[in-house]
Specification:
Largest sheet: 7 strands, parallel
Strand content: 15-25%
Oligomer: single chain
Shape: globular
Mean pLDDT: 96
Helix content: 40-55%
CATH superfamily: NAD(P)-binding Rossmann-like Domain
Strand order of the largest sheet: 3-2-1-4-5-6-7
CATH class: Alpha Beta
CATH architecture: 3-Layer(aba) Sandwich
Bound molecules: NADP nicotinamide-adenine-dinucleotide phosphate
């Protein structure tokens, strides 16, 4: 039996939701470096255009789109455009997420709860549902949901965010099970503490030092250190892999 063409993504259309900075930006770059045409999407299209321009300047293929995954109309518009502009989708990375409330779980107010759920759970769910339908029209594709180690070990004072990340792991398994017959593989990435804007509050001051003490590798990750795992999961190298959660956490979850 011949080995799959391991990491080549030439001819693939890849939508990276939450590509304007941080981990999503690094994912957009690595997919483009391996030959995919990348659609860099988030709420701020100018920031996505900067990412797409950098990809093009490096010899890759990319464009930018507005997509607010907390807004069902925006999800619908993204997929209407995608069908018209490209007629297909091979790769979806659900990466953009929100963490608006740091505090005791019992004090979570409804607005913070709702926003976190709408983006991190409803957004991933309906982006995936729309992607599966489009992928199924041409033989399948691959979805990666960026969850978090908080799905396994809830972060202190990050209750609702941790709940959403656990939901993403469950969602990944449900989509993986039902969509395998359609040729769609669905996997989750569980990043550990990574140096980005989202993790800014955790990395600063005493809280950051406390986290570092629990990471066997004794440092946070850089965004680029998450990107290779996503490349693996969407590529031919992972052709028999679906429904998994891949921890990339400097050993946090075994400590
Ligand atoms: N950094 C960490 O330590 C860490 C650890 C575990 C898991 N994660 C996960 O990794 C993923 C990326 O986070 P990051 O650390 O790279 O954060 P980041 O640097 O703050 O980037 C977040 C990205 O999400 C986009 N985004 C936010 N809300 C969105 C929405 N409603 N619709 C579309 N895009 C939206 C942002 O773009 P716009 O503002 O332009 O919309 C941005 O591109 C998230 O799922 C996060 O939960 C991060």
């Amino acid at each position: 039996m011949s080995a799959p063409d391991t990491f080549a993504l030439r001819g693939k259309i890849a939508l990276v939701a939450g590509a304007s900075r941080g981990i999503g930006e690094a994912i957009a770059h690595i997919l483009a470096r391996h030959g995919a045409h990348v659609i860099a999407a988030s709420r701020k299209v100018e920031a996505c255009e900067t990412v797409a321009a950098a990809i093009r300047a490096a010899g890759g293929s990319a464009e930018a789109r507005t997509c607010h995954i907390g807004d069902m109309d925006s999800i619908g518009a993204t997929f209407d455009w995608l069908k018209q502009a490209h007629g297909r989708l091979d790769i979806l990375v659900n990466n953009g997420a929100t963490n608006v409330y740091y505090g005791p779980i019992q004090d979570t107010d409804l607005a913070a709860y709702q926003k976190t759920m709408d983006v991190n759970v409803r957004g991933y769910f309906f982006m995936s549902a729309a992607a599966v339908k489009l992928m199924a029209t041409h033989g399948g594709g691959a979805i990666v949901n960026v969850a978090s180690i908080n799905a396994v070990v809830p972060g202190a004072l990050q209750g609702v965010y941790s709940v959403t990340k656990a939901a993403v792991v469950g969602m990944t398994k449900s989509f993986a099970r039902e969509c395998a017959p359609l040729g769609v593989r669905v996997n989750a990435l569980l990043p550990g503490l990574t140096r980005t804007k989202l993790a800014g509050a955790l990395l600063e001051g005493a809280t950051g030092e406390k986290w570092a003490a629990h990471i066997p590798m004794a440092r946070p990750a850089e965004p680029d250190e998450m990107a290779g795992a996503v490349l693996y999961l969407v590529s031919g190298a992972a052709s028999y892999t679906t429904g998994i959660s891949l921890n990339v956490d400097g050993g946090f979850l075994v400590s």
